């Protein structure tokens, strides 16, 4: 029997620290896309609340907290991050395991927003993109999900195959921002 | 150019994929005259001014009907294609 060694999506490309900003890999646990059946949004939200303690997020919002989040993931879709999905959710929504499909990174630090602003076209101003807000958008040429999880921290998700590219793009942007800081 | 996705709000044009004139919303009946089908499949206007077309917001997965002015590049109105279809407009 061949010994198989599981590698994480970033496989050593993270963590990175440049200037005041750091990027690290996040193990979010189980990722499940939850796509409610037609007209079942409310029932799903209640089931989610009962089973995992958080309502289904409105578009462009995320609910829950570290270790157990529900992130709006597109039209009629929520990504459940952390817990194994309760079987009751399956009554109201199609559940698909996505755990190995995404690379998840956390970008944090004083200038994290400036670094992200170099990579994505969304409006990241603190008054517009607040904690608990999320966006499906692009990061360089990659499809991404960006969620503001703290005052100065963001969770970035891209397809697993893009992990090395994301790490590279983050590094270049972090270096660019750091180079412009007064010493 | 920026387009307002009815779900995500104002976003950069890069996030959208252009499909073409919004004729797909007015599909003729199966037994319609051949001329109607020729129009539907092949014939397009190329207006200088107001036009309605379909854009796909790749990130949230919405089809958006964008009313815009080709001369000034002004985006006048955006709506979800699914809403328009359900209203039968």
From TrEMBL, chain A:
Quote the InterPro entries the UniProt record gives: TrmE/GcvT-like
What is this protein's name?
A: Sarcosine oxidase, gamma subunit family
UniProtKB/TrEMBL annotation, chain B:
Q: Which superkingdom does the taxonomy of this entry point to?
A: Bacteria
Q: Which Pfam families does this chain map to?
A: SoxD
What GO molecular function annotation could you give as one example from this UniProt entry? Answer: sarcosine oxidase activity
Which BP terms does GO give this entry?
tetrahydrofolate metabolic process
Write the protein's name: Sarcosine oxidase, delta subunit family
- What species is given as this protein's source? Roseovarius albus
């Amino acid at each position: 029997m061949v010994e198989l060694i599981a590698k994480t999506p970033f496989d050593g490309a993270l963590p990175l620290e440049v200037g005041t900003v750091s990027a690290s890999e996040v193990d979010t646990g189980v990722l499940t896309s939850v796509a409610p059946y037609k007209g079942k949004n409310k029932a799903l939200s209640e089931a989610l609340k009962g089973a995992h303690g958080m309502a289904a997020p409105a578009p462009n919002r995320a609910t829950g907290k570290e270790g157990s989040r529900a992130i709006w993931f597109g039209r009629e879709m929520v990504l459940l991050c952390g817990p194994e999905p309760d079987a009751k959710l399956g009554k109201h929504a199609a559940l698909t395991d996505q755990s190995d499909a995404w690379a998840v990174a956390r970008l944090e630090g004083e200038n994290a927003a400036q670094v992200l602003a170099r990579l994505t076209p969304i409006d990241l101003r603190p008054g517009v993109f607040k904690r608990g807000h999320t966006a499906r958008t692009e990061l360089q040429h990659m499809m991404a999900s960006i969620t503001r999880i703290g005052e100065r921290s963001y969770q970035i998700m891209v397809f697993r195959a893009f992990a090395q590219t994301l790490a590279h793009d983050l590094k270049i942007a972090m270096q660019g921002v750091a180079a412009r800081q007064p010493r | 150019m920026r387009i307002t996705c009815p779900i995500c709000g104002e976003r950069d044009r890069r996030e959208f994929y252009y499909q073409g004139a919004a004729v797909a919303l007015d599909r003729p009946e199966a037994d319609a005259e051949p001329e109607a089908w020729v129009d539907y499949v092949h014939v397009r206007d190329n207006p200088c001014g107001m036009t309605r077309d379909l854009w796909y917001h790749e990130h949230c997965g919405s089809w958006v009907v964008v009313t815009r002015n080709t001369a000034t590049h002004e985006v006048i109105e955006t709506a979800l294609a699914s809403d328009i279809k359900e209203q039968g407009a």
